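During the first year of the project, the team set up a workflow for recording each protein of interest as an amino acid sequence followed immediately by a discrete structure-token representation. This format lets reviewers and collaborators read both layers of information side by side without switching files. As required by the reporting guidelines, we include two representative entries from the current panel. The first entry is reproduced here exactly as it appears in our internal archive.
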Amino acid sequence: MKLATIEKITKLSAHPNADALEIVNVLGYQAVVPIGLHKEGDLVVYIQPDTVLPQDQEWAEEYIRYSPKRVKAVKLRGEFSEGVVAPLSKWKNFKELFFEQWATIEASPEYWRKYYIDAIGKEVSELIGVTKYEPPLPANESAIGGLPYGLGKTDEERFENMEDKIPYGEIVDLTLKVDGQSTTHGYYIADDKYLLTGRRFEINQDEPNRYSIHVPKVKDKIIEYCKEHNLSLAFRGESYGNGIQSSSVNPHSNLPHSLAFFSIYNLDERRYEHKGSPHYFVNVCDKLGLERVPILEKDVVLTKELIEEYSKGIKKLPNGNHFEGVVVQHANGSFKIINKYYDANK
């Protein structure tokens, strides 16, 4: 998952409501910047939404004023601005910092230009101190270790980062992205072990906390299913309810505590069971009577217009609720569409 990368400005256009501002496009994002600072084709450092800027570095000071806690989408004079677009000149030693070979190739302008362009997409978050935003952990989480059995964090890629990899024309499901705490329940057959994790840690199942309260209602069903099919599976979901990710736009933060699954990971083969698989989470949860995230649109053709609608075309769902976004489920994977209105108001 991208945090901060070297990218190229692909488009520059006038801001319709502000003479001193203009709009730049990087990857699939747009950002509002001071006029005259960038040119089309410039290389920049692009810092993604849902990241945290360093508090102790000079280059970040002007951006922290607008994103003190996390980088997110904001509206500036009526236009969405997503992420941070920073010129390479923000770092006085940018050649040494970003381009390892700069000293040996500086004498060769042609090779330098080629290497310069080849750097597009390079991850530089560690070099400049940018980190992934992590919601605060509850005090009673009862963490007992890292994620076991090769489990990774539950981070869907945003559509803006996928460029030509979006499977337009495929039949997909659109599932609701619930704003809560990532929770995984699973069973590893070889060790006869039941798993309970948060997004980053394995959780003690024997201590009462916001994760373990769901174990009694799902454990037996998950173990039985795994044994029936001789599979080690991790059911990945979102814990939600009172006190979890509370905000004025999160409808799930006002509900009783519950757990909705959104994917199944095959621990033996280290892959997700996607749409079309017999172990696709929709099929399994419905069979077992487990709560899952709602399907907003089922078996629809994926188009640019559909992505645009859920990204910035609508503020609320037909039921009147704000929504964090949707996840596009297709035969070879999944990715998320974050609703810009929700992100700007969270």
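The second entry, processed by the same pipeline in the following quarter, appears below.
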Amino acid sequence: MGRLTELKEYDYNLPSGLIAQEPARPRDYCRLMVLSRETGHIEHKTFVDIVELVKPGDLLVINDTKVINGRLLGRKRNSQGKVEVLLLRRLAKIANPRRKSQYFREVWETIVRPGRRMREGTEVLFWRNSWTKLSSPGNSPLTGKVLSREGGKFIFGFDFEGTFERKIEKVGVVPLPPYIKRDVGHRFIQRDRKWYQTVYAREEGAIAAPTAGLHFTRRLLQRLEAKGARVVPLTLHVSWGTFRPVREAEITRHKIEPEYFELTIDSAKAINEAIENESRIIAVGTTTVRALESCCIERKLPIPRRFGKKFAVKPRKGWTKLFIYPGYEFRVVDGLVTNFHLPRSSLLMLVAAFAGRDRLFHAYGEAMKENYRFYSYGDAMFII
């Protein structure tokens, strides 16, 4: 153990005015802080300038997960009391406890607010604008039922017609982080559906965006590829594991809850070719780092050059609990595009492991002096 595994080392005070409430427009014109891992040198640029910093042959790895409308606002069937349900993780379907012949079409692990008075068996009706319109439609598009409670989480069973994806697209709300202030009916709520999604989002399943990717536009990606860089995808469905607060005073005791990821054969092949060619592998976002580092295997062939990597990656799909904090030895990643993260978060600890804790906190101090915008809709860092 030591200083770098103490939670207090990852705390800082941020003026509330630096918390971004909307993204830069266009999204690739946010500010970009460039931080050298080797020297700690800092440069201030605009995100489109990343084209100048990326070299021909570099490989950018992106997370193509797509955020679902996983925040469901509804009312209790009996009392009409307001209920907010945040979808966390899809579970196997289980039988309705009252009618053995009936199965819930979807069963999810969720967080519920307010949770104190939610009892097993409570039924909730969800419809669009349920919190502003007291009367529900004749047949609610989506109904849910509390099947059990496990600690601070609730297991919900859902019944509906059609597909679950269609239902939550209609009745659900973008699950923005609580520091982005949005009242019901806020003028930006519809825009958030586009803002809080990367331009390359494809695989539905995340309840939070891989925010480092929010800065890329299709045109910027085309410019990077025209320069000779390659861009390949992987998938990690961002869930509770990524944004659950670290509360243990000794961070090594913190456990990351599992998140599903997938690295395809084609993407793994491109990454391994980059390793063979000694090209830089640049991860776009902390979730991409965790997925990449979860796929590492020791190389069987002799390393041809003195400074060649000892590891390659293997196509994989499954669940990762990888928690990266200072002391971790990165095996594949050479560069990182990331945002400015919350204090005491596992994301901040991962970036501290990559850049060095003291260098990173010096950079955060500079960012505050220069009025950078923080968190999901904020500005970016490129650490190389």
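For the second entry, the following points were noted during internal review. Residues 148 and 155 are 5 Å apart (CA to CA). Residues 95-101 have pLDDT under 50 and may be disordered. Both points are flagged for discussion at the upcoming steering committee meeting.
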